[in-house]
UniProtKB/TrEMBL annotation:
The keyword Hydrolase applies. NCBIfam families: pgl. It catalyses: 6-phospho-D-glucono-1,5-lactone + H2O = 6-phospho-D-gluconate + H(+). Keywords: Hydrolase. The lineage of its organism: Eukaryota, Fungi, Dikarya, Ascomycota, Pezizomycotina. Its EC number is 3.1.1.31. This is 6-phosphogluconolactonase. Belongs to the glucosamine/galactosamine-6-phosphate isomerase family. 6-phosphogluconolactonase subfamily. Residues 2-119 form the Glucosamine/galactosamine-6-phosphate isomerase domain. The keyword S-adenosyl-L-methionine does not apply. Transmembrane segments: none annotated. GO terms for molecular function: 6-phosphogluconolactonase activity. SUPFAM superfamilies: NagB/RpiA/CoA transferase-like. One of its GO terms (biological process) is pentose-phosphate shunt. It comes from Hortaea werneckii (Black yeast).
Length: 140
């Protein structure tokens, strides 16, 4: 369960009183065609959670409906974040994330903007054709 996983993280990273969020050295994330990452989906109430480290989602818009995910603050706090996005099916969402305000509010856009220089994107030509990337961090 989400509670069990959070307890495990607390035991590894320290007591919740001394650590606001766990600090992962590296998170390697995917970018869904709708802009979701982990199990954080666009416009879902879990995006607004600021206290919990681990969240249960019972109404996922994509199968399976029941999932466990790290919260947005935990993801953004990682020392380094790598996104992998490949294939032409990712081009539209990458264009949104990097070129529109709406895209910056998608879960991947929130991680990208909130974690700044700590984020690197690993993409192929099919995913990035015609996408304007800012020159910060790394784009490979």
């Amino acid at each position: 369960t989400a509670d069990e996983y959070e307890k495990k993280l607390v035991s590894v990273f320290a007591s919740r009183d001394s650590v606001k969020v766990p600090l992962f050295d590296l998170l390697l994330l995917g970018c869904g065609p709708d802009g979701h990452t982990c199990s954080l989906f666009p416009d879902h109430p879990l995006l607004r959670e600021t206290e919990a480290w681990v969240l249960a989602i019972n109404d996922s818009p994509k199968p399976p409906p029941k999932r466990i995910t790290l919260s947005l603050p935990v993801v953004q706090a990682a020392a380094k974040i790598g996104f992998v996005a490949t294939g032409g099916g990712k081009k539209d969402v990458l264009k949104q994330i990097f070129e529109t305000e709406e895209g910056r509010n998608l879960p991947c856009g929130l991680v990208n903007g909130g974690a700044g220089e700590k984020v690197s994107w690993f993409c192929d030509t099919a995913a990035t054709d015609g996408v304007s990337f800012p020159r910060r961090g790394s784009v490979i």
